[in-house]
Amino acid sequence: MRALIDKVQATITDFIEQRDALWLRVAGRAADAPIVFKLLLSLERRNRRDVFLLLPTPFVSAEQYVDELVRLFRLEHQALQQARQALQQAPLPPLPAHFSGGPAQRLSELLGAARALLPPAGAQRLVWAFWPLELADPAAYEQLLDAVVPAGDCSEGDPAPRAPQPLRLIGRQVSALPAAQRRSPEAIPTVRMTTDFSPEAIQRSLQETVADPSQPVAARMHTLLMLAALDQAHDRAEAAQAKYELLLSYYQKKRRPALQTVVLLQLGELCQRRQRLPAARALYEQALTPAAAAQVPVCTALLAKNLGDLAEAEQRHADAAVYYQAWHRLACLLGDPEGAQLAHTKLTAAQHRSASAAAPRKPHPCPESAR
Protein backbone atom coordinates (compact mmCIF):
# COMPACT_ATOMS: atom_id res chain seq x y z
CA MET A 1 0.00 0.00 0.00
CA ARG A 2 2.82 2.39 0.88
CA ALA A 3 4.46 1.75 -2.50
CA LEU A 4 1.19 2.53 -4.33
CA ILE A 5 0.77 5.77 -2.38
CA ASP A 6 4.40 6.80 -2.93
CA LYS A 7 4.08 6.19 -6.68
CA VAL A 8 0.97 8.38 -6.99
CA GLN A 9 2.44 11.18 -4.87
CA ALA A 10 5.71 11.08 -6.83
CA THR A 11 3.84 11.40 -10.14
CA ILE A 12 1.82 14.37 -8.87
CA THR A 13 4.95 16.02 -7.45
CA ASP A 14 6.81 15.53 -10.74
CA PHE A 15 3.88 17.09 -12.59
CA ILE A 16 3.93 20.14 -10.32
CA GLU A 17 7.68 20.55 -10.78
CA GLN A 18 7.72 20.15 -14.59
CA ARG A 19 7.37 23.22 -16.82
CA ASP A 20 5.59 22.00 -19.96
CA ALA A 21 2.26 20.30 -19.25
CA LEU A 22 -0.82 22.21 -18.14
CA TRP A 23 -2.97 19.21 -17.18
CA LEU A 24 -2.59 16.06 -15.14
CA ARG A 25 -5.50 13.71 -15.86
CA VAL A 26 -5.86 10.82 -13.43
CA ALA A 27 -7.76 7.68 -14.40
CA GLY A 28 -8.95 5.12 -11.86
CA ARG A 29 -11.91 3.51 -10.19
CA ALA A 30 -14.57 5.71 -8.60
CA ALA A 31 -13.67 4.10 -5.26
CA ASP A 32 -10.11 5.43 -5.64
CA ALA A 33 -11.17 9.08 -6.01
CA PRO A 34 -11.36 9.83 -2.23
CA ILE A 35 -7.94 8.21 -1.72
CA VAL A 36 -6.34 10.37 -4.40
CA PHE A 37 -8.01 13.46 -2.95
CA LYS A 38 -6.52 12.69 0.48
CA LEU A 39 -3.10 12.30 -1.15
CA LEU A 40 -3.53 15.73 -2.77
CA LEU A 41 -4.37 17.21 0.64
CA SER A 42 -1.24 15.58 2.06
CA LEU A 43 0.91 17.07 -0.70
CA GLU A 44 -0.61 20.49 -0.02
CA ARG A 45 0.37 20.29 3.66
CA ARG A 46 3.95 19.43 2.72
CA ASN A 47 4.31 22.05 -0.02
CA ARG A 48 5.36 25.41 1.46
CA ARG A 49 5.83 27.23 -1.82
CA ASP A 50 2.76 26.90 -4.05
CA VAL A 51 -0.92 27.78 -3.81
CA PHE A 52 -3.34 24.85 -3.84
CA LEU A 53 -7.06 24.87 -4.59
CA LEU A 54 -8.35 21.36 -4.02
CA LEU A 55 -12.09 21.30 -4.58
CA PRO A 56 -14.21 18.13 -4.20
CA THR A 57 -17.26 20.05 -5.46
CA PRO A 58 -19.98 17.65 -6.73
CA PHE A 59 -20.58 17.77 -10.49
CA VAL A 60 -24.22 17.73 -11.60
CA SER A 61 -23.91 19.81 -14.78
CA ALA A 62 -21.31 22.07 -16.34
CA GLU A 63 -23.33 25.20 -15.50
CA GLN A 64 -23.83 24.20 -11.86
CA TYR A 65 -20.18 23.15 -11.48
CA VAL A 66 -18.68 26.36 -12.87
CA ASP A 67 -21.14 28.49 -10.88
CA GLU A 68 -19.97 26.77 -7.70
CA LEU A 69 -16.27 27.07 -8.60
CA VAL A 70 -16.68 30.80 -9.23
CA ARG A 71 -18.52 31.23 -5.92
CA LEU A 72 -15.86 29.32 -3.97
CA PHE A 73 -13.02 31.21 -5.63
CA ARG A 74 -14.62 34.55 -4.80
CA LEU A 75 -14.82 33.45 -1.15
CA GLU A 76 -11.14 32.45 -1.21
CA HIS A 77 -10.23 35.80 -2.78
CA GLN A 78 -12.24 37.69 -0.16
CA ALA A 79 -10.56 35.78 2.68
CA LEU A 80 -7.12 36.51 1.25
CA GLN A 81 -7.94 40.19 0.90
CA GLN A 82 -9.01 40.37 4.53
CA ALA A 83 -5.88 38.55 5.68
CA ARG A 84 -3.62 40.88 3.67
CA GLN A 85 -5.46 43.90 5.04
CA ALA A 86 -4.94 42.67 8.60
CA LEU A 87 -1.20 42.30 7.87
CA GLN A 88 -1.13 45.76 6.22
CA GLN A 89 -0.07 44.25 2.91
CA ALA A 90 -0.94 45.54 -0.56
CA PRO A 91 -4.36 44.31 -1.72
CA LEU A 92 -4.74 41.71 -4.46
CA PRO A 93 -6.08 42.81 -7.84
CA PRO A 94 -9.89 42.68 -7.87
CA LEU A 95 -11.69 39.88 -9.68
CA PRO A 96 -13.91 40.67 -12.67
CA ALA A 97 -17.50 41.38 -11.70
CA HIS A 98 -18.72 38.75 -14.16
CA PHE A 99 -17.30 35.89 -16.17
CA SER A 100 -19.14 35.71 -19.49
CA GLY A 101 -19.88 32.98 -22.01
CA GLY A 102 -20.54 29.27 -21.65
CA PRO A 103 -19.20 27.10 -18.81
CA ALA A 104 -15.86 26.34 -20.49
CA GLN A 105 -15.22 29.99 -21.38
CA ARG A 106 -16.16 31.17 -17.88
CA LEU A 107 -13.89 28.58 -16.28
CA SER A 108 -11.05 29.56 -18.65
CA GLU A 109 -11.48 33.21 -17.68
CA LEU A 110 -11.59 32.29 -13.99
CA LEU A 111 -8.30 30.44 -14.33
CA GLY A 112 -6.79 33.42 -16.14
CA ALA A 113 -7.91 35.73 -13.34
CA ALA A 114 -6.53 33.34 -10.72
CA ARG A 115 -3.18 33.19 -12.48
CA ALA A 116 -3.01 37.00 -12.57
CA LEU A 117 -3.07 36.99 -8.75
CA LEU A 118 0.21 35.06 -8.51
CA PRO A 119 3.52 36.88 -7.95
CA PRO A 120 5.57 37.55 -11.09
CA ALA A 121 8.65 35.63 -12.22
CA GLY A 122 7.22 32.23 -11.31
CA ALA A 123 7.70 32.61 -7.58
CA GLN A 124 4.57 30.50 -6.99
CA ARG A 125 2.42 28.06 -8.91
CA LEU A 126 -1.31 27.56 -8.63
CA VAL A 127 -2.23 23.88 -8.33
CA TRP A 128 -5.97 23.58 -8.96
CA ALA A 129 -7.61 20.17 -8.67
CA PHE A 130 -11.06 19.81 -10.24
CA TRP A 131 -11.85 16.68 -8.23
CA PRO A 132 -15.58 16.06 -7.79
CA LEU A 133 -16.17 13.14 -5.43
CA GLU A 134 -19.77 12.96 -6.71
CA LEU A 135 -20.04 12.85 -10.49
CA ALA A 136 -23.55 12.75 -11.94
CA ASP A 137 -22.56 13.31 -15.59
CA PRO A 138 -19.03 12.01 -16.34
CA ALA A 139 -19.22 12.83 -20.06
CA ALA A 140 -20.17 16.47 -19.41
CA TYR A 141 -17.43 16.78 -16.80
CA GLU A 142 -14.75 15.56 -19.19
CA GLN A 143 -16.06 17.71 -22.04
CA LEU A 144 -15.78 20.74 -19.77
CA LEU A 145 -12.19 19.99 -18.75
CA ASP A 146 -11.19 19.20 -22.34
CA ALA A 147 -12.49 22.61 -23.47
CA VAL A 148 -10.72 24.66 -20.81
CA VAL A 149 -7.88 26.89 -22.05
CA PRO A 150 -6.91 29.48 -19.42
CA ALA A 151 -7.40 33.01 -20.73
CA GLY A 152 -4.15 34.59 -21.84
CA ASP A 153 -2.29 31.28 -22.25
CA CYS A 154 -2.86 30.95 -25.99
CA SER A 155 -1.91 33.02 -28.96
CA GLU A 156 -3.89 33.43 -32.18
CA GLY A 157 -3.96 30.13 -34.09
CA ASP A 158 -1.97 28.32 -31.40
CA PRO A 159 -4.23 26.40 -29.00
CA ALA A 160 -1.37 25.14 -26.87
CA PRO A 161 -0.44 27.13 -23.75
CA ARG A 162 2.97 28.77 -23.87
CA ALA A 163 5.45 27.25 -21.41
CA PRO A 164 6.55 27.87 -18.79
CA GLN A 165 3.32 28.86 -17.08
CA PRO A 166 2.35 28.89 -13.40
CA LEU A 167 -0.84 26.84 -13.61
CA ARG A 168 -1.00 23.14 -12.77
CA LEU A 169 -4.45 21.71 -13.38
CA ILE A 170 -5.50 18.27 -12.14
CA GLY A 171 -8.68 16.44 -13.13
CA ARG A 172 -10.21 13.02 -13.14
CA GLN A 173 -10.16 10.86 -16.26
CA VAL A 174 -13.44 8.98 -16.00
CA SER A 175 -14.35 7.81 -19.51
CA ALA A 176 -12.95 4.82 -21.33
CA LEU A 177 -12.99 6.72 -24.62
CA PRO A 178 -9.56 6.51 -26.31
CA ALA A 179 -7.59 9.74 -26.39
CA ALA A 180 -7.65 9.70 -30.19
CA GLN A 181 -11.43 10.12 -30.13
CA ARG A 182 -11.24 12.92 -27.57
CA ARG A 183 -9.54 16.29 -27.76
CA SER A 184 -6.14 15.85 -29.41
CA PRO A 185 -3.54 15.21 -26.70
CA GLU A 186 -1.16 17.55 -28.54
CA ALA A 187 -3.61 20.44 -28.31
CA ILE A 188 -3.13 20.90 -24.57
CA PRO A 189 0.08 19.47 -23.01
CA THR A 190 -1.19 16.77 -20.67
CA VAL A 191 0.32 14.19 -18.33
CA ARG A 192 -1.80 11.08 -17.83
CA MET A 193 -1.66 8.53 -15.05
CA THR A 194 -3.78 5.66 -13.74
CA THR A 195 -4.31 4.79 -10.08
CA ASP A 196 -5.28 1.40 -8.76
CA PHE A 197 -6.02 0.89 -5.08
CA SER A 198 -8.12 -2.23 -5.61
CA PRO A 199 -7.65 -5.12 -3.14
CA GLU A 200 -5.80 -7.05 -5.84
CA ALA A 201 -3.41 -4.17 -6.49
CA ILE A 202 -2.77 -3.69 -2.78
CA GLN A 203 -1.99 -7.38 -2.36
CA ARG A 204 0.38 -7.36 -5.34
CA SER A 205 2.16 -4.34 -3.91
CA LEU A 206 2.53 -6.00 -0.52
CA GLN A 207 3.87 -9.17 -2.11
CA GLU A 208 6.42 -7.17 -4.10
CA THR A 209 7.61 -5.47 -0.91
CA VAL A 210 8.02 -8.80 0.90
CA ALA A 211 9.99 -10.22 -2.03
CA ASP A 212 12.23 -7.15 -2.42
CA PRO A 213 15.65 -7.92 -0.88
CA SER A 214 16.58 -4.22 -0.95
CA GLN A 215 13.92 -3.48 1.67
CA PRO A 216 14.86 -3.66 5.38
CA VAL A 217 13.96 -7.01 6.92
CA ALA A 218 11.80 -5.33 9.58
CA ALA A 219 9.75 -3.59 6.87
CA ARG A 220 9.33 -6.84 4.95
CA MET A 221 8.15 -8.62 8.09
CA HIS A 222 5.68 -5.85 8.85
CA THR A 223 4.34 -6.20 5.31
CA LEU A 224 4.17 -9.96 5.70
CA LEU A 225 2.00 -9.40 8.78
CA MET A 226 -0.43 -7.36 6.67
CA LEU A 227 -0.49 -10.10 4.02
CA ALA A 228 -1.22 -12.70 6.68
CA ALA A 229 -4.12 -10.61 7.94
CA LEU A 230 -5.48 -10.37 4.37
CA ASP A 231 -5.23 -14.14 4.00
CA GLN A 232 -7.04 -14.58 7.31
CA ALA A 233 -9.78 -12.13 6.34
CA HIS A 234 -10.38 -14.01 3.07
CA ASP A 235 -10.47 -17.47 4.71
CA ARG A 236 -7.12 -18.55 3.30
CA ALA A 237 -6.32 -20.24 6.60
CA GLU A 238 -3.33 -22.34 5.54
CA ALA A 239 -1.59 -19.42 3.82
CA ALA A 240 -2.23 -17.19 6.83
CA GLN A 241 -0.94 -19.82 9.25
CA ALA A 242 2.30 -20.29 7.30
CA LYS A 243 2.96 -16.54 7.34
CA TYR A 244 2.10 -16.18 11.04
CA GLU A 245 4.43 -19.05 11.98
CA LEU A 246 7.29 -17.41 10.07
CA LEU A 247 6.51 -14.11 11.80
CA LEU A 248 6.38 -15.74 15.23
CA SER A 249 9.84 -17.21 14.73
CA TYR A 250 11.20 -13.83 13.60
CA TYR A 251 9.67 -11.86 16.48
CA GLN A 252 10.87 -14.42 19.01
CA LYS A 253 14.43 -14.06 17.72
CA LYS A 254 14.12 -10.27 17.84
CA ARG A 255 12.53 -10.37 21.32
CA ARG A 256 9.47 -8.37 20.35
CA PRO A 257 6.91 -9.52 22.95
CA ALA A 258 4.05 -7.27 21.79
CA LEU A 259 4.25 -8.58 18.22
CA GLN A 260 4.67 -12.13 19.48
CA THR A 261 1.40 -11.66 21.36
CA VAL A 262 -0.35 -10.33 18.25
CA VAL A 263 0.82 -13.26 16.11
CA LEU A 264 -0.10 -15.87 18.74
CA LEU A 265 -3.56 -14.31 19.05
CA GLN A 266 -4.08 -14.59 15.29
CA LEU A 267 -2.83 -18.19 15.21
CA GLY A 268 -5.18 -19.01 18.08
CA GLU A 269 -8.11 -17.42 16.25
CA LEU A 270 -7.31 -19.46 13.13
CA CYS A 271 -7.43 -22.66 15.20
CA GLN A 272 -10.57 -21.61 17.07
CA ARG A 273 -12.37 -20.80 13.82
CA ARG A 274 -11.58 -24.31 12.58
CA GLN A 275 -12.81 -25.81 15.88
CA ARG A 276 -9.33 -26.94 16.90
CA LEU A 277 -10.00 -25.82 20.45
CA PRO A 278 -7.13 -27.54 22.32
CA ALA A 279 -4.60 -26.07 19.84
CA ALA A 280 -6.21 -22.62 20.20
CA ARG A 281 -6.05 -22.87 23.98
CA ALA A 282 -2.36 -23.81 23.86
CA LEU A 283 -1.58 -20.81 21.64
CA TYR A 284 -3.52 -18.38 23.84
CA GLU A 285 -1.80 -19.68 26.95
CA GLN A 286 1.56 -19.42 25.19
CA ALA A 287 0.71 -15.75 24.52
CA LEU A 288 0.35 -15.02 28.26
CA THR A 289 4.11 -14.75 28.80
CA PRO A 290 4.90 -12.24 26.01
CA ALA A 291 1.72 -10.31 26.82
CA ALA A 292 2.88 -9.88 30.42
CA ALA A 293 6.32 -8.77 29.20
CA ALA A 294 4.91 -6.32 26.63
CA GLN A 295 2.45 -4.69 29.04
CA VAL A 296 0.25 -3.49 26.18
CA PRO A 297 -3.32 -3.32 27.58
CA VAL A 298 -4.96 -3.66 24.16
CA CYS A 299 -3.18 -6.96 23.50
CA THR A 300 -3.96 -8.22 26.99
CA ALA A 301 -7.63 -7.29 26.62
CA LEU A 302 -7.90 -9.19 23.31
CA LEU A 303 -6.18 -12.17 24.89
CA ALA A 304 -8.59 -12.15 27.85
CA LYS A 305 -11.58 -11.93 25.48
CA ASN A 306 -10.35 -14.81 23.31
CA LEU A 307 -9.59 -16.98 26.34
CA GLY A 308 -13.09 -16.26 27.66
CA ASP A 309 -14.75 -17.16 24.36
CA LEU A 310 -12.71 -20.36 24.17
CA ALA A 311 -13.59 -21.34 27.73
CA GLU A 312 -17.28 -20.80 26.94
CA ALA A 313 -16.96 -22.98 23.83
CA GLU A 314 -15.45 -25.71 26.03
CA GLN A 315 -18.22 -25.32 28.65
CA ARG A 316 -15.73 -24.04 31.25
CA HIS A 317 -18.05 -21.29 32.43
CA ALA A 318 -16.24 -20.43 35.66
CA ASP A 319 -12.96 -19.95 33.77
CA ALA A 320 -14.79 -17.88 31.16
CA ALA A 321 -16.14 -15.59 33.89
CA VAL A 322 -12.61 -14.96 35.19
CA TYR A 323 -11.35 -14.04 31.73
CA TYR A 324 -14.36 -11.86 30.94
CA GLN A 325 -13.91 -10.03 34.23
CA ALA A 326 -10.30 -9.25 33.26
CA TRP A 327 -11.45 -8.12 29.82
CA HIS A 328 -14.09 -5.85 31.37
CA ARG A 329 -11.56 -4.26 33.68
CA LEU A 330 -9.10 -3.62 30.83
CA ALA A 331 -11.81 -2.26 28.53
CA CYS A 332 -12.77 0.27 31.22
CA LEU A 333 -9.11 1.17 31.66
CA LEU A 334 -8.76 1.72 27.87
CA GLY A 335 -11.86 3.92 27.67
CA ASP A 336 -13.69 1.41 25.47
CA PRO A 337 -17.36 1.62 26.51
CA GLU A 338 -18.60 -0.75 23.80
CA GLY A 339 -15.99 -3.35 24.72
CA ALA A 340 -16.77 -2.92 28.40
CA GLN A 341 -20.50 -3.38 27.77
CA LEU A 342 -19.95 -6.53 25.71
CA ALA A 343 -17.54 -7.91 28.30
CA HIS A 344 -20.08 -7.25 31.07
CA THR A 345 -22.83 -9.00 29.10
CA LYS A 346 -20.66 -12.06 28.51
CA LEU A 347 -19.44 -12.01 32.12
CA THR A 348 -23.01 -12.02 33.44
CA ALA A 349 -24.00 -14.89 31.14
CA ALA A 350 -20.92 -16.94 32.09
CA GLN A 351 -21.56 -16.39 35.81
CA HIS A 352 -25.18 -17.48 35.39
CA ARG A 353 -24.19 -20.65 33.52
CA SER A 354 -21.48 -21.40 36.08
CA ALA A 355 -23.96 -21.02 38.97
CA SER A 356 -26.51 -23.21 37.19
CA ALA A 357 -23.93 -25.91 36.56
CA ALA A 358 -22.79 -25.85 40.22
CA ALA A 359 -26.29 -25.94 41.75
CA PRO A 360 -27.29 -29.40 43.13
CA ARG A 361 -29.95 -31.09 41.10
CA LYS A 362 -33.08 -32.48 42.72
CA PRO A 363 -33.18 -36.28 42.43
CA HIS A 364 -35.90 -37.63 40.21
CA PRO A 365 -38.46 -39.69 42.16
CA CYS A 366 -38.14 -43.39 41.48
CA PRO A 367 -41.11 -45.07 39.85
CA GLU A 368 -41.84 -47.14 42.97
CA SER A 369 -42.18 -44.10 45.25
CA ALA A 370 -44.40 -42.37 42.76
CA ARG A 371 -47.05 -45.08 43.08
**Overall pLDDT level:** 88
Strand residues, percent? 5-15%
Largest sheet: 5 strands, parallel
Strand order of the largest sheet: 2-3-4-1-5
User: What is the β-strand count?
Assistant: 5
Helical residue percent band: 55-70%
CATH arch. level architecture of the domain at 2-196: 3-Layer(aba) Sandwich
CATH-derived topology of the domain at 2-196: Rossmann fold
Sequence stretches where pLDDT stays below 50 over 5 or more residues? 154-163
User: How many angstroms does the end-to-end distance come to?
Assistant: 78 Å
Number of helices: 14
Rg (CA only): 31 Å
What is the overall shape? elongated
Structural class: alpha/beta
Series of H and E elements: HEHEHHEHEEHHHHHHHHH
Keywords:
5 strands, elongated, five-stranded parallel β-sheet, Rossmann fold, alpha/beta, about 375 residues
Q: What do these coordinates show?
A:
- The protein is 60% helix and 7% strand.
- It has helices at residues 2-17, 33-46, 62-86, 103-116, 138-147, 199-211, 217-233, 237-253, 257-273, 277-294, 297-313, 317-333, 337-358, 367-370; strands at 23-27, 51-55, 126-130, 167-173, 190-194.
- Helix 7 (217-233) runs antiparallel to helix 8, helix 9 (257-273) runs antiparallel to helix 10 (277-294) and helix 10 packs antiparallel against helix 11 (297-313).
- Mean pLDDT is 88; it is low at 154-163.
- The longest helix is centred in the N-terminal third of the chain and has 25 residues, at 62-86.
- It is an alpha/beta fold and 371 residues long.
